[in-house]
Amino acid sequence: MRYLPKSPAERAEMLREIGASSIDDLFAIIPEEYRLSRDLDIPRQMGESEIVEHFKTAAAQNANGYASFLGAGVYRHYRPVIIDTIVQRGEFLTSYTPYQAEITQGTLQAIFEFQTMICELTGMDIANASMYDGSTACPEAVMMAMRLTGRDSVVVARSVHPEYREVMRTYAQHREEISGHATREIGYGEDGRLDPGALEQAVTEQTACVLVQSPNFFGVIEDIPAIAEIAHKKGALLIVAIAEAISLGIVRPPAEADIVTMEAQSYGVAPSYGGPFCGVIAAKEKYVRQMPGRLVGETKDRQGRRGFVLTLSTREQHIRREKATSNICTNQALVALMATVFMTVYGKEGIRDLALHNLAKADYAAKRLTGNGRLLFAQSPRFNEFVLQTEEPAEQLNARLLENRIIGGVALKRWYPELGNATLWCATELTTREQINQAAAVLAQAPAAAAAR
Amino acid sequence: MNQKEKFSGTPRKVTAHLTQNEGLSFEKSAPGKKAYRLAPLDVPEVDAASLLGDAVRSQTAELPELSEIEIIRHFTRLSTWNYAIDLGMYPLGSCTMKYNPRVNEFVSRIEGIAEAHPYQPEQLSQGSLGIMRLLRQCLLEITGMDAITLQPAAGAHGEFTGILLVRAYHEAKGNPRRTVIIPDSAHGTNPATAAICGYEVVNFKSNAQGGIDVEALAQAVTEETAALMLTNPSTIGVFENEIHRIADILHAKGALLYMDGANMNALCGKVRPGDFGVDVMHLNLHKTFSTPHGGGGPGSGPVACKRILEPFLPVPVIEEDAEGQLRLNYDRPQSVGRVRAFYGNFGMFVRALAYILANGPDGLRQTTEDAVLNANYIRRKLEDLYELPYNTPSMHEVVFSDRRQTRNGVKTGDIAKRLIDYGFHPYTVSFPLIVPGALMIEPTESESREELDLFVDAMRQIAREAEENPQIILDAPHSTRVSRLDETTAARKPVLRWRRPEQA
Q: Which of A72, A317, A361 comes nearest B189 by C-beta?
């Protein structure tokens, strides 16, 4: 086996030195009835060329050469080449969690830079070293808010990513059984934004937090200051989830929030069929001791030189066990490094320029593609996504687009049946004018019956 | 005795060399420097203020401004401050720091795989779904279980999923039950997980061999016990040879056996948890199946279970339709729900499958045998100098204690720091908690005899230093860019982000 660095003679010699007559001696403690006496029934050992071929064949069975208007929580942005150059360095790739600070200063300093950049972008004071992803960051933030307020009811906007809400439900189910407090979902208005009247009614003295997404699942930017006011009036915390991190280049950061959860996939991370991505929790400084996940802090060594360490670990499971702020252990360090390089490459000016390009492309796409449908929530501010409502069923429309090697918007019926034949479209800096025009042309050829208004 | 005459070991693996100094990227920034150039905009420009109104950002975020060469140097310099598997043995017990094959990285970046969007139509995702199906089949065969979900993002997330399955199972029978029994040798994630799932943790004391006291367990398990969370081999690297009795005791009371699969590298291809009574378990693809640790993640924590738990698995599950097309089925009324958006850390599935294909059945078995051989070799070569608190046979890792060295004021944490000077990453320090002053050493299969001998040599020289020159250990490391860092001040006055000096 080519990964194993021992010759048969070395193995035999080592066994001799241990005093074992055969390798089976070392497994003798396992009761014989459980020892596997046959080969595992898995594919035989392959050569490297066969492995590459296996996955190339698989890749060919996925979409290749299609124009895509998919977003909905996973965004296609250009990934500068040096990101991969850097994360493929073995010193980053094959290092472990930086518990031994003296020999992991590289990872620690990079995470410290990551935390700083996330704070700058979100308007928060502190950010952790990453969570699994944007979806799991939400229930973790909710549990953080419960600990901070000592309250246990939660209000969530229905315009939050449907899968994020499903994950929150999974985390909440047993808790709700115990406390009897169900999560309340608040609908959206005609403008696609959270209904402030309904929110006002839902938030009570028992509400730990209000969780909204902005830009929300429809691409619409929420009125964060107004929502914050309603939440804070009753002593509830405001959590703002951000799924499209590029928006922060041009959209006002949710500074009024108490906690911000984020999916940083847009910062240089491949869609990769849904993961691995990079979740983040950022918050106001006063909440630091209830923050889940790893944190890197600056300190000095015995000679007074600056260095970085994992800190405030008394919050974490390896110290606090069942009393920890979360059971989380692994984070997404390597993906956070990708995001760090991405943010460094674009920098102060670039992140805004890039966001502006996204805004322009989506604005053009919304105008061109609504020739044969209705742009929902047209008057509300949007970033790079929009909802198109058509007479033609989404499945039919998307099937026609696929014939032209275009993957259209995500059909919303499964989560929002009230929107009818609605599709969620996304345009990024990578979407070309030509692709948008082609999609518009296909949409315009809707079968006469369906297109009749 | 004069300091110079005292014994000071000679590292054979390393020679000191210079590393580059490097500030924070923010400190190197200068207005107007750029590392990007966007393609010209091919659609009309827009006025952000008029499109976004009040929602427009008025002040740009203070990100650094640097050129491309500076960024490459910045991160390359930082990288040289890290220790890594690629540089040498990384014997962190419980973490399974094995070689991360590069073909895994290569295939995960193939365009049709890396660019696949989770919402692209199923008929255009057959490649991704096929990868998941084959990985699932392999993991089921390796574990001897009946059903599996790949969705959990890491080991602790897998534990969470597994305990939710347990809870749903009991609930379906009318009572979620109240407690989860966890041995005192367990990883901290076990009790934290049980607590998050709404269970009361019953801490269970290990017996004199560091294992489960079967008689005491029989007393502890009641009708309110939901599950026992057991790591097997245990965190002291010992196989619970009464595992089947343990399972029987639980099952007799309707409770389930959860296995923390962190130590699967000791079992793969040799014995299957499904065969010895485990009901549900998680795997760590970043441990056993070679996906990179990357400085702390990403991980991936599939959960495998017996048939009785299958109805409760997270949605969606992959199914094959009559035409042989793979589909995602969301219609699972008894499911615990989603534990994560989309389908899991797919990129890690690709890497883990590539690893399994590179090994085949013979390779996986040989891998396990070599991992166990290496741990026993280290044990043999060090047991005369370091205290072995449990004499039970070791599997893939060996746990010593610092009892002999503490006589000279040298603790496990100090020995760990001194190992750095000898060119090794330390072992896991002070864990498991049942061994005071633990040195938990897991070499993995990836070490040659030469590397093991260098490690043994380093540990033996350090043992001598502890006798003759303990101060050199207490002041270690001597060879790193920074010496021991002040963690107390870091926690007392946390500085968690950079600020421009005038703002500070």
A: A317
